[in-house]
Design brief:
Blueprint (H helix, E strand, L loop, with lengths): L1 E3 L13 H10 L2 E7 L6 H10 L3 E5 L11 H13 L4 E8 L7 H18 L3 E6 L2 H10 L5 E3 L6 H9 L2 E5 L9 H9 L5 E3 L22 H12 L3 H15 L5
Parallel strand pairs: 1-2, 2-3, 3-4, 4-5, 5-6, 6-7, 7-8
């Protein structure tokens, strides 16, 4: 059994093919798919999909790339969703200093307010991190949460260890399949196996083996897991068992 800890199942790229996407994932042993929201506007679509497909579980949050258009009232709506709809996490939240003309103060405001909500509801968080790792770690030290997942982790060894100390697992996915990603692959090999979860970030971050122009899907998690097992010198079964256990523990999942 495998768990895809990050998939945007409601993305436009999937159109109305979600039933096929979920079925194809099941066929290769992906038994659970975590579906994070990115803005108030897609809270309902994430909730609806997860109600329609029992193997999909929701997280609700305001993504840093959507904070430019977010309003303070969105935090009140988020609080209602956390209270009424029993998500497994607050997410996808975080900070992104890679995009052009980013507003750090605005991103940080929404990040901190959502950390406070995670504390209030005793939920883990799903972190988006691009070029902002140290700032995120600073805020996590100031606003402690019960851990979560550093999605699409691509930081240093020292930063990885700091996330682990704070109760986080590190998400590895398609980027790890590229042979040129030497630093990331070294981390995949040398970090404690107990600290790693697997993800696709579908339809984004297509793995190396996927043809050009094709959307990523949860079904490709099996091949991502195979790549990971080869890098670590473990069997696929060992990888599936441990990474599933890791995801279940950090997200308080029961299957």
């Amino acid at each position: 059994m495998l768990i895809d800890t990050h998939c945007h199942l409601d993305a436009e790229e999937f159109g109305d093919t979600q039933a096929d996407v979920v079925r194809n994932a099941h066929d290769v042993g992906v038994s659970l798919i975590v579906v994070p929201a990115v803005a108030r506007a897609n809270f309902d679509s994430v909730r609806s999909l997860c109600e329609q497909y029992p193997s999909c579980v929701p997280a609700y949050g305001i993504h840093p790339m959507y904070t430019d258009t977010a309003m303070p009232d969105d935090l009140l709506v988020l609080r209602d969703y956390l209270q009424q709809h029993s998500p497994i996490a607050v997410g996808e939240i975080g900070m992104d200093f890679f995009i052009n003309h980013y507003d750090q103060a605005r991103q940080e405001f929404y990040f901190v307010e959502q950390l406070k909500l995670a504390r209030e509801f005793d939920l883990p968080v799903l972190l988006h991190i691009r070029k902002a790792t140290d700032t995120i770690l600073k805020n996590l030290r100031q606003h402690r949460v019960k851990g979560g997942i550093a999605h699409a982790f691509n930081g240093s060894r020292q930063q990885a260890e700091e996330f682990i100390k704070q109760g986080f697992k590190l998400g590895f996915g398609g980027a790890m399949t590229y042979s040129r990603a030497t630093k990331l692959r070294e981390l995949a090999v040398t970090l404690p196996l107990e600290s790693i979860v697997l993800e696709t970030d579908a339809p984004d971050i297509p793995p190396d083996f996927l043809g050009r122009g094709l959307a990523n899907e949860p079904k490709y998690l099996l091949q991502i897991a195979q790549t990971f097992s080869e890098l670590r010198g473990l069997t696929l079964e060992e990888v599936a068992t441990q990474t599933t256990q890791n995801a279940m523990s950090v997200l308080n999942l029961r299957i």
